[in-house]
Amino acid sequence: MAHDLVSEGRRILAEGLPEPPAQLSRRHRLAVLAADVDDDAAAVLFARRGTSGQPWFEVVVFEKHRGGAWESPGGSGGAAEDDILDDRPPSVALGAPLRWEGGGACRGRLAPRLPPGAWRARRLLNHTLVRAAAETAQVRVRGAHGERTLPVPRHGQLIVVWRGRAAPSLTPWSAAGVRIGPEVSVASGGW
């Protein structure tokens, strides 16, 4: 692979998100779309132009080492819709202010060691992909480590990360600070 997604993800977690290009091309083969941090877990979402021009998404999941460095135990990826970098569509086109677009999990390596037979779900690093509509300016994420707010970028692509079984819930908010949709649990999927 031409790009080191783990190194790029670490840079994004340290410096923040750059503005993505308007489209993927031979010149812009990789774009950072979104990132999320929940305590000692993080995920970065990328769009990548495949060799045939087909867009792909790539997710790199991270966990924070005791020394403070971000380590990646894995990620996921797959074919993306052609409109992955387009301006976000209205909620009428999406069917709601937020649309679930998939997700995954990988086993973390840095969680505390547990005795044999103990509940091991704490080691799971989960992520979900979400597309926000044009009316949605921010998404409030309520999870085990409190509440955080994700600003919605121009393209509406978001990633939400959490560790363990307790999936967070998401609430869409407008630019005026008005709640514009119901609180939905990430665990329900397909909303």
Structural class: mainly beta
How many helices does DSSP assign? 2
Could you say how many structural domains there are in total? 1
Stretches with pLDDT under 50, minimum 5 residues: none
Strand content: 35-45%
Strand order of the largest sheet: 1-2-3-4
Radius of gyration: 16 Å
The helix content is under 10%
| Strand element count | 11
N→C terminal distance: 34 Å
Order of helices and strands: HEEEEHEEEEEEE
Q: Major beta sheet, specifics?
A: 4 strands, antiparallel
Please, what is the average pLDDT?
Answer: 87
Overall form:
globular
Question: Can you put this structure into words, describing what you see?
Answer:
The chain has a 4-stranded antiparallel β-sheet with strand order 1-2-3-4, covered by helices on one side. A 4-stranded antiparallel β-sheet has the order 8-7-10-11, with no helix packed on it. The model has no long low-confidence stretch (mean pLDDT 87). By secondary structure, the protein is mainly beta.
